Pilus assembly protein
Amino acid sequence: MMKPTMELYALPHQGQIKRVTRKLKKRTTLAYQYVAVRGDWVCLYASSAPQVARSEWWLDVLEGRGLLDARDTALIEPLTEEQWQGVLIEEGVVRQIWSAPSYSQLTVNLEASSCVLVVETREETRLEENWTRIAPPSDEELARLSQYRLTSHAPRWKKPVLAGAVVVSVVGALIAGQAWHAHQPKPTPTPKANAPAKPITLPPWMHYRLAINDALSAHQVMQGALISAATLATLPSGWKAESITLQGHALTASILREPQGLVSVWSQWLTQHPALASQFTGNSDTQTLSIAINAGLPRWHKRAMPLRPTDARLQDTLVQLGAVTTLSHESTPSTWQSKTWQVTHPGMNVTELSQLASLFDALPLSMDALTLTPVSLDTWSLSFTITLYGGL
């Protein structure tokens, strides 16, 4: 039988532990909770039924054994014959808990080079080269497990009243009211109101996956812009490009015929670019280039990188490239967070656009808006919005 789901929420407290704890508790309706303060972080565990914050207990066990690596560490443990649990620890803080019915399903997305500790079991499990088997918990370690029990935080009005007071008041009411009730007409029954539907709670990391599943890859968008800019830089005489913009899931660019422009010259130019010919639509005066962009960041669907210090490095790199950056939005839904910047640049050539695309390729970065405006034949001014996703 699978145990009830355990939710994990975490935020940096910046010295305001009580305030952050209250903020975390507002994010869940589950009655059983456990709060742990680890360094600069407050972690809240929540469940619909009594259980223990086993991952926090394991964190202390591993520290006591001297097994926590300077790198991120994953612990793999069998809970029952049909349930395995994984715990991801980053810089001494539990970041993620996940479970699966088997060892192979639980570890399928773990990298071979990761620091992974696997609790020894009777079942033979295959380990990657850098993974390590560790001894199961001792009796002394297990004796401390109860200290990590989630306790009920139900509102006071839900607590039972004293039984004696209820019995006395009910008996008295029955004796006093029997005669009166016998002479009263039966009340018309009123229909029962439907019980409010229980809120559906998604696992914390599911929100992260939904966010990046709908996002447009900044790398793909910039690659499309690079192709567009490189192509439009070779436009024939008499034809000029207007801005390249991101519209929905496509990059579009308008090409206008100037007064001296010839349609025959345009047609000849198209034959020299057969790969793009099918992506142009329009008439003899205006042509539109459209390049579709697929949604999603598949590389990051099952993994997350810490947002810090990547966010600062990204912003500094953009500034060093001559861009002006403005932080426009920050979000911390639960166990992950995001930052959004508005970025402008006075002018980049094709080579510099290529460098920008390469920078974006290594990051869980989406692009929400983009406008490239020609400054000269091979230089474009930029304005775009990017969002960086990562773990806390």
Q: What stands out?
A: Residues 163-182 form the longest helix (20 residues). Residues 210-391 form a domain with the Alpha-Beta Plaits fold (CATH 3.30.70.60). Confidence is low (pLDDT under 50) at residues 155-184, 195-202.
